[in-house]
Design a protein that fits this description.
single chain, alpha/beta, D-Maltodextrin-Binding Protein, domain 2, six-stranded mixed beta sheet, 9 helices, 11 strands, 25% strand, globular, binds ligand ISJ, MqnA, Menaquinone_biosynth, menaquinone biosynthesis, EC 4.2.1.151, lyase
């Protein structure tokens, strides 16, 4: 079998899911690359990779898809790194920039604006550096590590995972390991083992030590905000999200 082309998210949230590959034999059967989520999404849609930690909102764009592994980038409470950032309260927001690096959170934001917060600001496409345009009645959805920078700057922070949970009573899945073709069962099994290995206590501590940052406590991020297990409840949340976005106007 040719090497499986695997693409993963380049943010801090994904480091624990990659740690276990370094000393697992499955690495010999794969070629790993990293990039921001919307790029990986496009690579999986275009077929330039076989498997990716992709935003779940692209599932409807894949002719064939398989959710592999028991792990994901999810949340059962505030996620901290996916928020609507604003200098004014929700009801005063007139425009919202939608992060160009995201495919899931931008759809989640549209859903929440319409059905939960029930406000109708103009939605603006964003370009690199758009965070600087947040201000006054202009807000922005920012994801990943760049969201930690915004957390220190903005007066109002609306956490999208928290809002989803308040809206639906279900946890949320941002991204999951998804392939665009059936992969051998023995590969899937080994891959699952490797991606889960970094979540064990001592290894998670190593991940934290390897990625020093003063942006946010990574210990809190990995243990209290991001929830990595793709549990039955998360699968329910995912199914509900995919159903809800069909009706998005
Ligand atoms: C929690 C996060 O989840 C992410 C959000 C994604 C999206 O909005 O498309 C995709 C992958 C994840 O990295 C984050 O990036 O902060």
């Amino acid at each position: 079998m040719d090497k499986v082309k695997v693409a993963a998210v380049s943010y801090l949230n994904t480091k624990p899911l990659l740690y276990g590959f370094r000393d697992h034999p499955v690495s010999g059967h794969m070629q790993l690359s990293v990039d921001f989520p919307s790029r990986i999404a496009q690579q999986l849609i275009d077929g330039t990779v076989d498997l990716g930690l992709v935003p779940v909102a692209i599932i409807p764009f894949l002719p064939e898809h398989y959710i592999i592994s028991d792990y994901c980038i999810g949340a059962e409470g505030p996620v901290a790194s996916v928020c609507l950032f604003s200098d004014v309260p929700l009801e005063e927001i007139r425009e919202v920039y939608l992060d160009y690096q995201s495919r899931t959170s931008v759809v989640l934001a549209r859903l929440l604006l319409q059905d939960f917060w029930k406000i109708t600001p103009a939605l603006l496409p964003a370009e690199p550096g758009y965070e600087e345009k947040i201000g006054g009645t202009t807000a922005g959805v920012v994801i990943g590590d760049r969201a930690f920078v915004q957390r220190k700057k903005r007066k109002y922070i609306y956490d999208l995972a928290e809002a989803w949970i308040n809206h639906t009573g279900l946890p949320f899945v941002f991204a999951a390991w998804i392939s665009n073709k059936a992969l051998p069962a023995h590969f899937e099994q080994a891959f699952n083992e490797a991606t889960g290995a970094g979540l064990q206590g001592p290894r998670l501590e190593k991940v934290i030590a390897e990625n020093p940052t003063d942006l946010f406590s990574l210990h809190d991020y990995y243990t209290r905000h991001i929830s990595f297990e793709l549990s039955v409840q998360k699968r329910r949340g995912l199914a509900h999200f995919l159903e809800s976005i069909k009706k998005l106007s």
